[in-house]
Amino acid sequence: MKKILIPVDGSVASEKASIKAVEIGKLVNAELTFIAVVNTPSDAKYSYFGMNVEQAFIANCEEMLESLIKEENKMLDILIRNLDCGDLATKKKVVVGKAYDEILKIATDENFDLIVMGRRGLSNMERIFLGSVTQKVIAQAPCPVMVVNE
Prior knowledge:
By secondary structure, the chain is an alpha/beta fold. The protein has helices spanning about 10-30, 45-50, 55-80, 100-110, 125-130, 135-140, and strands spanning about 5, 30-40, 90-95, 115-120, 145-150.
């Protein structure tokens, strides 16, 4: 096992998963890649109700994405700085898309040996309506997935 992927969303569960990934990484001298996924903003929920927010939305979308990417990078920097990674090689990535799609794509494209992630992210409400990102990753991952409880 040489490459571990750690999805991070700022939740307590993802922080605990990060700590566990570092512990495992030290045992096998693995490279750690921390990723954060910025959800693509969508006006779909407004158009469903017949509201037209398209022009205002398009005007602010690029600026909003840029700001979100910058904040996710800061979060990853702080997390990695606070972890005791020792001599392990660490990388960070911020990508835009649906969390489970991006996690699975990176895990597959970059041949990760293990994904370590939290059981529950920031949004309980999102999980009720959309299903758990963790469950979708477990179901489709190209490698083993370790789920760390809060």
